[in-house]
From TrEMBL, chain A:
Gene3D superfamilies: P-loop containing nucleotide triphosphate hydrolases. GO terms for molecular function: ATP binding. It comes from the Bacteria. CDD domains: ABC_NrtD_SsuB_transporters. Keywords: ATP-binding, Nucleotide-binding, Transport. This is ABC transporter ATP-binding protein. It comes from Herbiconiux moechotypicola. InterPro entries: AAA+_ATPase, ABC_transporter-like_ATP-bd, ABC_transporter-like_CS, ABC_transporter_ATP-bind, P-loop_NTPase.
UniProtKB/TrEMBL annotation, chain B:
CDD domains: TM_PBP2 (cd06261). Belongs to the binding-protein-dependent transport system permease family. It comes from the Bacteria. Residues 64-244 form the ABC transmembrane type-1 domain. This is ABC transporter permease. It comes from Herbiconiux moechotypicola. The chain crosses the membrane at residues 12-32, 72-95, 102-124, 130-149, 185-205, 225-247. PANTHER family: ABC TRANSPORTER PERMEASE PROTEIN HI_0355-RELATED, ALKANE SULFONATE ABC TRANSPORTER-RELATED, MEMBRANE SUBUNIT. SUPFAM superfamilies: MetI-like (SSF161098).
Amino acid sequence: MHAEMTPKIELVGLDKQFALGGGETREVVRDVSFSVKPGEFVSVIGPSGCGKSTMFNIIAGLELPTEGEVKVDGAVVNGQREHFAYMPQKDLLFPWRTIAENGALGLEVQGVPKKKAVERAKSFFSTFGLAGYENAHPYELSGGMRQRAALLRTVVQGREILLLDEPFGALDSLTRIEMQNWLQGVWSEYSWTAVLITHDIREAVYLSDRVIVLTARPASVRLELEIDLPRPRELGIVTSPEFAAYEEQLIEVLHEESRKAFAQQNGAEKR
Amino acid sequence: MKTKRMTRGGFWGTVIPPVAIVLVLLVGWELAVTLTGMRPQVLPAPSRVFVEGFERADIIWGHTLATLQVTLIGFAFSLIVAWAIAIAIDFSGVLRRGLMPLLVASQTIPIIAIAPLMIIWFGFGLLPKILVVALVTFFPIVVGLIEGFNKADRETSNLLRSMGAGRWKEFVYVRLPSAMPSFFTALRISITYAVVGAIFAEYVGAQQGLGIFMSTQKNAFRTDLVLAAVAVTAVLSISLYLLTFLIERVVIPWSFKERKARGAR
């Protein structure tokens, strides 16, 4: 037997409570523990409003957990931001910067001279299907291209782990499928360690090595599902019986949790 | 629809309508005065305003330069103060809560009461006039800047922080550029107040300037010359207003292009 590999990310008993005022607190995340291996692509899926984003902010170091630890390569990194490159749901490209300059933003913020940062960003343009758009402005790009530019901005930073928060949520379904297919391709090429938050079961199965389902609020891990499908995955794989079986399993659990979340929200309204 | 028609009309499409309306009004005014035989001390015909004003063009020009000087120096001072206050407020919630009521209160001061006091305190020189101009113009700029800074939302802030930016870098990379379009909107509102503010300050007491010129001519019952000075004031205000568009295009060309692209879509 090999000694077990140190996970790239390990979450240990994450807990998050917000003070509501009047001495009351709301628990948003409860005892979340899971780990991600180096080069693994893990999706996190859960009913809306379940606390996914809070959990994500804790991993990214933007918020501190009330209890628990975030570890990278075995070391506690609570509140540290330099290990993760974060891609928000909106592309947030700045209209006053060209696409290359937008791509260079992270490096610039980290102190790389602008010219060098832009050069490095430009070296990714053909991989991201953006060649020829280096000096364009965001308003000249389609939704899919903008999202690719946002991912480029995330990847250029050269950080160990990518955190993707519903990156394709705002795209139309055709563009989204195209983007998923493309992301799958570049991911197998670069084998980034990536955590993806999504609402989309098909997206989660198609892209991931493992899918983690969260419960309704407070979020905790309901199910971890290993996706054992060969890579590279063709688009047609979504119609295969194996794929459908994974989807079915996830739909079942997720619907149960969504119903709970729905009941919670209704209850809160009546109160 | 409206913008489409404007672009189709081009330069002349935007220039001809206002000029035509002004011409119609002037002709109506001229006719009314001629037909009623009104005394020029009460209401001079526009032709008289023009002729009399033109005869004293060099004198009026001298006063105009003085007013322009007060306007520009006062406005520059106002800009510095407004930027300083807005940045300070952006960085500190305590300052925001502490300063905002004071700033709002400053806008309720009747200029008509404070301008003469300024002369008592600071004499007939440039200083009281600069202060009056600043007082009437800084507030819209402060509000425009504060709102502009806040256009950068929580998510953008998270993105920058995840990249390792502190508050200052967040300000420089996002909040400042995000604020530029609303800054220029505020600038346009303010610059029109600036000219009026300068004239008001001069009206109360000055050696040179359109304000004191109007005051003297009014006392001499030269209504025609007062109106000539008013016309010059209007031209001055409109020119400065148009100038802000030009500066905006030079400073933030992206804003103009983006708006145009959105409009076209």
